[in-house]
Amino acid sequence: MFPIAYAPSFNEAHIDITRNLHFLYDDYNALGEFDNALQCALATVRLFPEAYPRTGKARRRFTFEYRSILYTVLYTFDGELVMLHDIHFSRSARTAHWLAE
Question: Torsions phi, psi of 79, nearest 5?
């Protein structure tokens, strides 16, 4: 498994995501919880790579779907549907838009 958490492109995307969430910019507690939730999701991907099929592609693609369940974000990872249950991920439909870019 490649070290996605340390890739420069991931760090840049993470900054863009947190800047564009519907959090108040002085709500550092919410941003910290968002960061923790994202790091936990990435740790799961790194710890259990067998749960995610390998495609042979050098770069994995995350595709986020529109949120239809409260406090849930649906996305596909290497073609497999994954559901995140987190109030900070699913605070707005714009979150999915920013994560998909």
Answer: 85, 0
Residue 73: alpha-carbon gap to chain centroid = 9
What is the tens place of the pLDDT at every residue in 28-63?
666 677 677 777 776 666 665 555 455 544 344 444
CA distance 46 to 23: 28
Strand pairing class (80-85; 72-77) = antiparallel
CA distances from 24 to 5, 20, 28 (A): 25, 10, 8
- Placement of tokens 């996305």 in the chain: 75
Dihedral sign from CA coordinates of 21, 52, 82, 41: negative
Residue 41 in tokens: 């999701």
Per-domain residue ranges for the chain? 4-100
Identify the three-state secondary structure at position 92: coil
Beta strand residue intervals within 1-101, DSSP E = 62-64, 72-77, 80-85
Threshold 0.70, pTM exceeds: no
